[in-house]
Write a structure and sequence with these properties.
Layout: H1 2-15, E1 20-24, H2 31-35, E2 44-53, E3 59-65, H3 72-79, E4 86-88, H4 91-98, E5 118-123, H5 124-128, E6 134-136, E7 143-147, H6 149-158, E8 164-166
Parallel strand pairs: 2-6, 3-5, 5-8
Antiparallel strand pairs: 1-7, 2-3, 2-4, 6-7
């Protein structure tokens, strides 16, 4: 199934005239596992967190550089949801909204959030940090796809997901 979704994503990106680069590798479930396969890529590799606000039930996808620490309490305050209110969303919700399971959350999966119910938080550095490419899983954790930052922004706008830009130190 993930290969069909990857093909659908690639078709969509091609229609937008977005050029990508892809590294196929064994399935990975952690950033550490993934980085072993990405030694030679030029750009920023991401990690992605699929979260929910326990009070309002709002869903959030957060994409940061792979080496950033994300303090959920600090992030919750920045997003105005109140400290202690952000939690990891369950896999069933991720499958329903983004069509991907554990280990595959990715900004590129926002293509499948047809009702734009997932709010997207993007680390500002991924857009304006001078990165040649920004890397995400393309609907599967057995590959990592690079996309230029300006093309990522265009993809997000086309899918109706205006990013909330944040800084993570």
């Amino acid at each position: 199934m993930s290969e069909d979704l990857r093909a659908e994503l690639e078709t969509y990106l091609h229609a937008l005239k977005v050029q990508t680069t892809c590294v196929d590798h064994a399935p990975v479930f952690t950033v550490e596992e993934m980085m072993r396969h990405l030694q030679d890529v030029r750009g920023a590799v991401t990690k992605n967190l699929f979260l929910k606000d326990k009070k309002k039930k709002t869903l959030w996808l957060v994409s940061t550089r792979h080496d950033r620490q994300v303090n959920l309490n600090v992030l919750a305050k920045k997003l105005g949801v109140g400290s202690g209110n952000l939690r990891f969303a369950d896999e069933a919700t991720m499958l329903d909204k983004l069509k991907v399971g554990q280990g595959c959350a990715t900004a590129l999966a926002l293509l499948f959030d047809k009702d734009q119910s997932v709010k997207f938080v993007l680390e500002k550095d991924l857009l304006d940090g001078g990165h040649e490419m920004v890397y995400f899983h393309p609907m599967t954790n057995s590959a990592t796809m690079g996309i230029r930052p300006d093309d990522l922004l265009r993809f997000l706008k086309e899918t109706g997901h205006e990013p909330i830009l944040e800084t993570f130190e």
